[in-house]
């Protein structure tokens, strides 16, 4: 399988989640997701201040092949989105784990425990 950092959490819908020191979450799409999408040409990211529920479609990534929704891995509030990724969507293809998409302040920090480990994601993705 493609690059899968063990220190991140994952969702079955191919988002990666990094828990930051302050408890906020940084979210992007996995290397597998960007490989399947192909050349990414457009990102629509959520606005800071938006309240989201787990599983909400809150962002869109468009490639030459398809448009895909990005889902909130946990409930919480959007605190930032990556303007440089919006300006250069191909950066997600170049390094899916460096090109984060948005950050969430989780409503409940324990929700992170329900996310997948790298091994669980690998199994769920069928790799």
TrEMBL record:
PROSITE patterns documented for this protein: BIOTINYL_LIPOYL, LIPOYL
InterPro entries: 2-oxoA_DH_lipoyl-BS (IPR003016), Biotin_lipoyl (IPR000089), GCV_H (IPR002930), GCV_H/Fam206 (IPR033753), GCV_H_sub (IPR017453), Single_hybrid_motif (IPR011053)
Lipoyl-binding domain span: 24-105
Keyword NADP tagged: no
Matching CDD domains: GCS_H
GO biological process, one term: glycine decarboxylation via glycine cleavage system
Cofactor note (record): Binds 1 lipoyl cofactor covalently.
Cofactor(s) needed for function: (R)-lipoate
Modified residues (N6-lipoyllysine): 65
One cellular-component annotation, GO: cytosol
Lyase is among the record's keywords: no
Transmembrane spans: none
Pfam family membership, one: GCV_H
Keyword set, alphabetical order: Lipoyl
Entry similarity comment: Belongs to the GcvH family.
Purpose: The glycine cleavage system catalyzes the degradation of glycine. The H protein shuttles the methylamine group of glycine from the P protein to the T protein.
NCBIfam families: gcvH, PRK01202.1
PANTHER family: GLYCINE CLEAVAGE SYSTEM H PROTEIN (PTHR11715), GLYCINE CLEAVAGE SYSTEM H PROTEIN-RELATED (PTHR11715:SF3)
Assembly information from the UniProt record: The glycine cleavage system is composed of four proteins: P, T, L and H.
Name of the protein this chain belongs to: Glycine cleavage system H protein
Gene transcribed to yield this protein: gcvH
């Amino acid at each position: 399988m493609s690059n899968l950092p063990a220190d991140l959490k994952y969702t079955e819908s191919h988002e990666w989640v990094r828990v930051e020191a302050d408890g906020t979450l940084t979210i992007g799409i996995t290397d597998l997701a960007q490989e399947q999408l192909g050349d990414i040409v457009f990102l629509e990211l959520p606005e800071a201040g938006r309240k989201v529920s787990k599983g909400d479609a809150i962002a869109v990534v468009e490639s030459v092949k398809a448009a895909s929704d990005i889902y909130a891995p946990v409930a919480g509030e959007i605190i930032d989105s990556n303007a440089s990724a919006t300006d250069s969507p191909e950066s997600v293809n170049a390094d899916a784990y460096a090109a984060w998409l948005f950050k969430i302040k989780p409503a409940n920090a324990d929700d992170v425990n329900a996310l997948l480990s790298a091994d669980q994601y690998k199994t769920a993705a069928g790799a």
